[in-house]
Structures are given as C-alpha cells and as structure tokens.
Amino acid sequence: MSNARIDNHFLTHPIFGLVSRVASKEGVRAFVIGGFVRDCFLGRKTDDIDIVVEGSGTAFAEAVAGAIEAESGHPCTVACFKNFGTAMLHYRGTEIEFVGARRESYQHNSRKPIVEDGSLEDDQKRRDFTINAMAFSLQKEDYGALVDPFGGIADLAKGIIRTPLDPDITFSDDPLRMLRAVRFASKLSTPELLFHISPECLDSISRMRDRMTILSAERIAEELNKILLTPKPSIGLQLLEDTGLLEYVLPALDRLKGVETVDGRGHKDNFSHTIQVVDHVSEAEAAAGKEPNLWLRWAALLHDIGKPASKRWDAASGWTFHGHEVIGARMVPKIFTALRLPLTEKMKYVQKLVGLHHRPVALVDEEVTDSAIRRLLFDAGDDIDDLMTLCGADITSKNPVKVAGIKRNFEIVRQKLVEVEEKDAIRNWKNPITGEYVMEVYGIPPGKAIGVLKEAVKEAVLDGIIGNNFEEADAYMRRTAESMGLTPVK
Fold first, then answer.
1. pTM of the predicted model as reported, rounded to 2 decimal places
2. 322 secondary structure, DSSP code
3. 121 is a domain residue
4. What's the pLDDT at 208?
5. Given 232, 249, 266, which residue is the final one in a domain?
6. Cβ of 340: how many Cβ atoms within 10 Å?
7. What are 437-454's pLDDT values in tens digits?
8. To the nearest whole number, what is the mean pLDDT of the chain?
C-alpha cells in the first residue's frame, strides 16, 4: 500500500462515509477504485463511482441501500447484474456500482472470463491499465489511503497508458483492451499533457491485433463512438492506424490511407485529411458551446469514404474523385450494418450529410445563385446547419492563403443561405399543390399526370419562377395542366 493519501476534497461525497460505516459493520473491506480515482488526480468531473469490496458486491450493495433508506426515509433500489456479479444504485445524483473483488482467467477463443472470488490485489491485477487500477481505502483505520501497486499515479503524471501485467497476456485475454488503450489516450490527452501508449504495449497491440476477430461488432462500435466523442478524436484515430487496428475496426477508412503519384502529381492523403476534418467538427462544436454530436462526427469520419472507389487519373486535370459523395452515401448503410450501428434516422442523417457534403463547397467555386441555394435548403432541410458545419470543417490545405480564400467565399454561401431562407422559407418546404387537390380540380384518378404537375410546381418554386405561396403555385399548375390537355372540372 502506498503512503500517499487522497486529498480531503476528493472525499467529500457523502457516499464514502456511509460505505465506510457499512463496511465496518459488515466486517468487510471496501475501496473506491478505477476511473473515479484516476479522475480525482486529473481534476476531471465524474458522476460514476466504482466500489470494490472483498466479499459479495451485491450483498454489500443491499446493505448500503438499507443504510441509505434508514438515513433518508426513502426507498433505495438496487439493480443487480448477476452475469457480471455487480450491483448498482443511485445516491444523491451519483451512480454507484459495487463489485466483489475477483480474479479472472480467460480461454483463448473467448473474451468472457472465468471469474473467482479474490482479494483487492487480485482485482487490481485484472484491471486494464495502471491508471485505472488505483484505489483508495474506505476503512476507518486508513481512510483515504491510496493503494497503487503498479505505479499508476506516476504513469498518470507522465501521461502513460500501460498495463499492470504483461501486455501480451492482458490484450490476448481481452482484446477490447487494445481499443480501450487507444480510447483513453484520446480521451485523457490535453494541450498540456498528451497521453501515449507505452512502447511495450504498442508493440504488443501490433502483434495481438488479429485477436480483434473474437470481438463483437457492438463492442467495437461502442469504443469507436467513445473515441469520436473525445475532444481531439484524431489522436485515437491515428493510433488505430499506427497499431494496425484500423483494418479490423473500420476497413473502409483504412483504405483511405496513402498517396498515389503519377508524373510527379499526387493527391492528398485522404485518411489524414479525414481525421483532421473530424477534429475541426469537434472544435466547431466546442467554439459554439454545443454538446458533441456523435452522428455529425460519424458523417465527418465517412464523408470521403467513397474516394478510393471514385479515384481516377486524368492527364489534363490530374487526380479526380468525381461522384465520391454519391458512392460514399451508398456505403453508409453497409458500414452501419457491419458495426451494428442503428439503421434508423441516425443512419439516414449520416447518409444525407455524406451525400450532400460537396454541394456547399461546389457553390464556393461557382456563382452563388438563389436557385442553387434554394435547392440546397430543400435537400438539407433542418440538417442544413450541421451540413454547413461539416463543410466548413472540410476546408483543409497546407496553403493558408488558399484556405483563407475558400473560407471567405464559404461565408458568402452562409450569408446567402440566411437571406434566401428569410425570403423564401424553403427549409422543410412542402408543396402547396397536393395530389388530392389536383384530382379534385381536374377530376382525374391517381396517375402520372399528378406527379408531373407537382414536380413542375416544385421546380418553378426552387428556380424562383414563382413565389412560395399557394396562389402562384395554383396558377402555375393550371398553366402547366392546360399545356398537357387537362381541363378543370370546377
């Protein structure tokens, strides 16, 4: 046991004193362990507390719940998870999880451990990294004493992600820990302290990466989501590439790597560009005071995913990627299916942004007409602001003068969007001419003519030929219908 102690201001949560009293009464030893201890030293806010007890975690949780009820006079519900030997309750806005100290062993073809009762030391050995293996005592005699057998506090100060035991064993037993190493390096890094995976762990991950094949797609996607939600996702995404994990977790992204050169002319590395765009989205959200939007970050991650399939060499214009946004949009459902990500409106949102991401940038290079703006607003709908965030993030170049020029033109597009929307109200536009109305006016059954008339009205509104109102739309419909040989019945 270390001589270090947790500062008193980290011990102020009332659950600690309560757990200490219950542990003394029950004759067991209890410790706070894991992420809460780590985040105390990092000064990071956390609402989750893990408590390990040398005994039954579920029985101890029930005893703590009883003490809470006696103290508050209100019921305290314990959720037990028998498959994991854990229990959880909520106390004063904080989620408290209890687990009995245990030792684990693994079979080679599974990441599900064989679990046996153990001591605190056994429990710390099974933890993924030294910075997550630290604990502090809740015993009366050494309350607040740090238990740090693997030097986690020193690793934390140096920004090192390291396993308590031989990394080959740690990563082979549970390959998910390889992804967790990447995620913690990305999550914990700050401008002041960049976290990195220790050399021996990096080497082990490179050798153990084929163990990823025993992981479920859901668990891989969960870690990818957490990496994307970090303040600087490129740290984790670059580590996935550096360690060779990328080809296992997202092979379509892995295929973006590299630069091909013909006659001395090369294209940019689309993988490096992509992770820079994801960072730019993160920075834009932070600057606007917004919560991270996971699906916007997925759109940033996949926005150029169609480039390998669309890459062509043209002797006159060099490398081209025509239609990559269309190909990329078609790939989104397949990628979401492979990772067991939700095939819901969230997937459709990502697909829409991937498919549209080139439109605002193309407007920068062309004359920004009201018609083009109306069509962009019509197609993007309520997602136009997120689309513009993505497109702004997509402006990257090693030439600062070029970037500045594109950004100036891009702001013109932004302003034009505001002006046209205020004037024409095209966002989420609904055709004032319905099929029912056409059938009523002309006394015709459902058929092709109705679609032709509705489409003609829509195109006229988007082109600015008529205003966005029923009166002008009705008059235009009647002129078009007359040219088609249709006569009103009323």
1. 0.87
2. T
3. yes
4. 93
5. 249
6. 14
7. 999 999 999 999 999 999
8. 90
Q: Any idea how long the chain is? A: 490
Phi and psi at residue 197, to the nearest 5° = -85, 135
Q: In this predicted model, what pLDDT tens digit does every residue of 379-436 receive, in sequence order?
A: 898 899 999 999 999 988 777 887 887 788 888 888 888 888 877 777 778 899 999 9
Q: Give which of 468, 442, 463, 464 is closest to 453, Cα–Cα.
A: 442
In a domain, 19, yes or no: yes
What share of the chain has pLDDT > 70, as a percent?
A: 94
Separation of alpha carbons 39 and 25, rounded Å: 29
Residues 109 and 130 both lie in one domain:
yes
| Integer Cα distance of 483 and 478 in angstroms | 9
Let me know whether 200 and 211 are in one domain.
yes
Domain that includes residue 196, residue range: 159-249
CATH number at residue 121: 3.30.460.10
The two structure tokens encoding residue 58: 């579920």
Measured CA distances, 469 to 261, 424, 452 (Å): 53, 9, 19
The enclosing H or E element of 266 equals: strand 265-266
160 by DSSP, 3-state: which?
strand
Distances (CA, A) of 400 to 117, 326, 396: 60, 29, 9
Assess if residue 444 is contained within a domain.
Answer: yes
User: Residue 43 domain-assigned?
Assistant: yes
- Is residue 26 domain-shared with residue 130, that is, in the same domain? yes
- Angstrom distance (rounded) from CA 128 to CA 162: 8
Domain termination residue (choose one: 249, 280, 300)? 249
Burial class of 310 by CB neighbour count within 10 A (0 to 12, 13 to 18, 19+): middle
